[in-house]
Amino acid sequence: MNSTKAKLDRFWSLTIQKYREGGVLNLLKAIPEGIKFLYKQILSESLIIDVKSKLSRYSSKELYYKTRSEKYLERFTEDNEASNLLFKLVNRNIDDTNLSDLSVLEIGCNAGRRANYLHENGIRDLYGIEINDTAIELMDKNFPQLSSDINVTEGRAQDVISKFESNKFDVVYTVSVLMHLDNDVEQLFDEIKRITKPDGLVITMECENSEYVLNKLDLNEDYSDWQKHRNYQEVFEPRGFSQVEQINAWDAGNEAEQLSVLRSHYKNGTHTARVFRNTGSL
Ligand SMILES: C[S@@+](CC[C@H](N)C(=O)[O-])C[C@H]1O[C@@H](n2cnc3c(N)ncnc32)[C@H](O)[C@@H]1O
Asked: What does the pLDDT look like over 81-91, one tens digit per residue?
């Protein structure tokens, strides 16, 4: 807890300095900020996260993401080529629809770099779900034009997805998000099916391949606790989707290369992009 104490001391001296000029009343305004800060710091202590995850329905990974600070989130505002691949996958698989009419949801949108790319390319009816409120604040700061159009719901995807009506979205996508989820996921997958329009698309760009990660990359450590690898064809086809495209980051070709920028914790080349069409059945 020593590092928390040092951060708290620093926070208070900065806050007091910030409010001192405005007198005592302004100083009082610092209290809610202080409570929020302290709460986040305490939550981010890993021991407490472990205990909390046992007491709550959040996994320790979800609590970790929920409490990540602005400092760690800044890198999610830097765009990379995977956004271009995502846009191409949407564009070439949606028939006869004006892009501005598409209704699109990103689960785990963070500060919005993927959604911003879609927005810059004409997709306007955008929705997001994000567990981390600081990431949503960063979106306002970094992508103000996106921010004025997108509708972001703060919360755990498994909980808040139920607020969307059935058959609402032309596209539901995730980029490096499902690979971190380890509880209540079956319900989440069912909900993704429910909210996707018949003929609509689900796109996953996720690390799926434990064998590749652990063997081909010569990793000694097993980080299966850190990432949950699934084959999303096996997840979505039994739910009435049909896979229309698959790209592996470790194959040759320009798109595989674009995908490989979504690197695993250690090296490039571990993700798989899949596009599924909702056949409407089941
Ligand atoms: C590796 S980041 C990817 C962010 C973004 N998709 C991108 O490509 O830049 C994973 C994101 O999922 C969010 N997240 C993790 N668990 C979540 C959950 N249960 N519900 C909603 N968002 C979640 C994290 O806060 C984080 O923003």
From this structure: 999 999 999 99
